[in-house]
Write a structure and sequence with these properties.
This protein is mostly helical. About 65% of the residues lie in helices and about 0% in strands.
C-alpha cells in the first residue's frame, strides 16, 4: 500500500535532485515510513523538525527504523 507523499516532503524532494534520487532508490516500505512520519505530525513546526531529521537519513539510503535493526 502506497502512502501519498506529504506536500512538505514533496517540496523538499522537488528542490533537491539528489534527495529525490535517494528517496526513489528506497524500497516502497521505507518511502511509506518517511511519508507517514511527516504526515502524522500535527504541528507545522514538528513537520519541519521531522523533515530536517530525515533528510540526511534518506541521503544515506537508510530507512526510518534501520537504527533498530541488527546489523
Amino acid at each position: 500500500r502506497k502512502i501519498a507523499i506529504p506536500p512538505l516532503l514533496q517540496k523538499a524532494l522537488t528542490a533537491d535532485t539528489s534527495l529525490l534520487v535517494a528517496f526513489k532508490a528506497l524500497t516502497q516500505g521505507k518511502q511509506n515510513d518517511y511519508n507517514e512520519y511527516i504526515a502524522t505530525a500535527k504541528q507545522e513546526k514538528t513537520k519541519q523538525n521531522r523533515l530536517q531529521k530525515i533528510i540526511l537519513m534518506i541521503l544515506e539510503h537508510k530507512g526510518l527504523h534501520d537504527k533498530y535493526k541488527n546489523s
